[in-house]
Write a structure and sequence with these properties.
The complex is a heterodimer of chains A (450) and B (489). Chain A is α/β, with parallel strands linked by helices. Chain A is built from 15 helices and 22 strands. Chain A folds into 4 domains: 2-120, Rossmann fold (3-Layer(aba) Sandwich), CATH 3.40.50.720; 127-220, Alpha-Beta Plaits (2-Layer Sandwich), CATH 3.30.70.1450; 230-319, 3-Layer(aba) Sandwich (Rossmann fold), CATH 3.40.50; 367-448, Alpha-Beta Plaits, CATH 3.30.70. In chain A, the strands form 4 sheets. A 6-stranded parallel beta sheet of chain A has the order 3-2-1-4-5-6, sandwiched between helices. Chain A has a 6-stranded parallel beta sheet with strand order 14-13-12-15-16-17, with helices on both faces. A 5-stranded antiparallel beta sheet of chain A has the order 7-8-11-9-10. The mean pLDDT of chain A is 86. Chain B has 489 residues and is mainly alpha-helical. In chain B, strands 1-2 form a two-stranded antiparallel ribbon. The longest helix of chain B is centred in the middle third of the chain and has 25 residues, at 178-202. The relative contact order of chain B is 0.11. The chains are: A alpha/beta (450), B mainly alpha (489). At the A-B interface, strand 2 and helix 2 of A face helix 10 of B.
Chain lengths: 450, 489
Amino acid sequence: MKIIIVGCGRVGYSLAGKLNADDNDVVVVDVSAEKVAETTAQFDVMGVVGNGATFSVLQEAGIADADLLIAVTNSDELNLLCCMIAKKEGNCKTVARIKDPEYSKEAQYLQKQLDLAAVINPEYEAAKEIARVLRFPSAVRIEPFGEGKVELISIRLGAGNLLVGQSVREIMPKLRANVQFAAVERGDEAYIVHGDTVFEEKDVLTFVSTPKDAVDFLTKIRRKRHAVKDALIVGGGVITRYLCDILGSSVALKIIEKNHDLCEEFASKYPKTTVINANPSDYALLKEQGIEKAEAFVALASLDEENILLSLFAKEWGVKKLVSKINRIDYDGVVAKLDLDTVVCPKNLTADIILRHVRSAKNVHGSNMQNFYNVVQDQVEAAEFIVREGSAVVGKPISELPWKQGVLVASIVRDGKVILPRGNDSILAGDSVIMVTKDVALFDIEDALA
Amino acid sequence: MNFSVIRKTLGALLVFEAIFFLVPAITAVCYGEWYELFIFLICIGICGGLGGLCVLPKVKNKNMYAKEGFVIVALSWVVMSLFGALPLLLTGTADSFIDALFETVSGFTTTGASIFTGEQIDGMAKSLLMWRSFTHWVGGMGVLVFVMAFLPLSGAQNMHMMKAESPGPIVSKLVPKVRQTAFILYAIYSVMTVAEFIMLLCGGMTVFEALHTAFATAGTGGFAFSSKGMAYGPYIQIVLTVFMLLFSINFTSYYLLLCGKPKEALTEEVRTFIIIVFTAITAISLNVHFMGNFEGKGSFADTLRQSAFYVASIVSTTGFGIEVDFSLWPQLSIGILMLLMFTGGCAGSTCGGMKLSRWIILSKGGAHEVGRLLHPKQVRKIMMDGRVVEHEVVRSVNAYLVAFILIFCTSILLISFDPLVQGDFTTAFTSVATTLNNVGPGVGEVVGPMGNFAGFTDFSKVVYMFDMLAGRLEIFPMLVLFTPATWRR
């Protein structure tokens, strides 16, 4: 697929890498020659220097025969203009990134009027993810599938967890929980869970189940925790604003922000929140604001390093639920070892949405990809497909199909009911199937067959 | 330094060299040269076996950075030449290993300077001649570009190698993927070679002669298949003139033409190239016709054709010779040809020399310096094709010029030890110029179009070989190879 990415910032750069790895022809456009050079030196993509909202630059980038244009510059207006011109000049799908909450409210309208394939909002996606883990604090990550009927939940197995030292085969009959174990993340590596997998301390276990069964399972392993009722947020950026919108008054929020003007804006827009105008790296202040009593600590400052340090500090003070936003730093492995609980990365969330679009568009068989989620960056993916009539996976018991190595049928949603498949279940046409894979990129459910 | 990636790439290269040997091997079968065939089969065995051994072990760490890219490029040309010299050495055609290596380096770098006399070439086996000529074709577009077009190497970092191997200050891709870019380049290259081959066949050349000449022209190399050079009548000479010029134009322009963008294809560099070529042809033919006084001078039409041929031959750095020796022409004509040797053709073509785009950037930079003396606070940017040339590019072009001059001067000093150049500055100067610019012939009795490099000492030949490789790879990869910091941990 021929894809043009306008804007080589954090989001553009990581998209270029992922789309290139997915074997697409990628052209990146940016006004900064330096950024273009950086991206083209790292990935096998072509670069064009110039303003992506001008006709001549888009033409040079090959808009005439491009299949998709993704506008992810820092400016919403520029992104929309890019997409409009691309639509006029080429015959391609367009995706625009919208950051400003004012536009974001009208995203649906814009999408329809400008004929955009999708509007992406990394900050809003991040806020949604944070809201989910605050409501369900046992989880490190949580991602809904099958229109919210199934959830993909990751939990960290702390010391003394019932599962540690047990194999799946031993533990399942004892628990009698209606969950499907999917993947385990251990240090830098991730594995698909099978019967002989033995859980270790500090593993991050990902499982699939209905929201109700998940609570049941967590109660059984004594890890159930109630939704967070108050949270301390550092940084008053766009994500924080979205978070306030989503959480409303269900969580008491205390926001610490350096910038006085921003504080005033927050105070006038969200009168129910407590807004503190102070420097968050002042540890005495954090103590004064009751960090040790907070149920959750959310670090959303602009600097990644600051967020990491603040979260580590909050952990020292015994805060149970930590959320840190990390956007720029790519030392994934190192950050994972720090045990920071939930780490939210807006650029990766964006990449997931776009990858889903690209893979759906590339998919020739017609089993439509409904959802896509990178469980463990660049290792484990989860994808949801609607199975079409006559697909090769239909009709045979799952255990008899020739699945590839590293592929798991995690769950099936049929007529609104969730089935956690066992070997003799079979997939029917019209089912919504959630697949979890390691090192296998799925464009269609049939790609999972050897 | 990631040695396993280097080993694997060089191994792949050797396997490809084994495949390249099939071309002369088939020629040997056609002409019944069984002894040569036997030698070529041995060479295929050596390269294929050794290459296979290097390729087979799995490489864990596939990381390749700019450093590995440069080292791979420089080493692969050395390795290719070392193994490519085997046939000449094993058949006993070349007197020594150094001679065989000189001839092969000259072939791969598309220089076309030879250590063989005319009589030796006339008596040489057809398969060996074909191998010499085929090295031009392979070296012209780049060995690694060829490997890249057909092998999925470790991915994104291939661009480092392409940048290091392709001529010109700015190397960019035609399409997003390196592999497809390499493939397109070779496709254009092959189609043009076939076109020339057919045109030469129409001119009455035999299949062998036409193929040999087409390979040598495409790579802008210049090995001839007989002692008479290209003294083959006006038709052949005109065809060659046209194709030598065509192969000196940036291949990106052809791609843009194919895409239906003729305006963009005609870049500033291409326009300058056309102007320079026409000016040089006019000046030389007038100069030779009115002021030339030498044996074998023909009518004005003959002179025009001969000047056009030599201009094309020198500016494209092919170095073919014809019935007249340009060393006998008036000094002005020789001077112009010498200058053309240094300009070379366009970047992104198969020719040698410093490339026109570099000269354009350098002269614009010079003009800006003068402007800055008049208006010290003036801010100006060097523009080419309506775009700003990045500071990085300007800097690297300046550095290139300095490195080029330093290597040039050092080489002349080293060559001065040779008994052959005593009292003959022309030979010393032009022999270095012709090897560093990958042209082939120089000026004078010894290295002129009718001479050869056989008489030099082994030491001088090694210097020339370094110059040819440095010239083809645009100096920096060779310098990286010989910088101790490259090999430090």
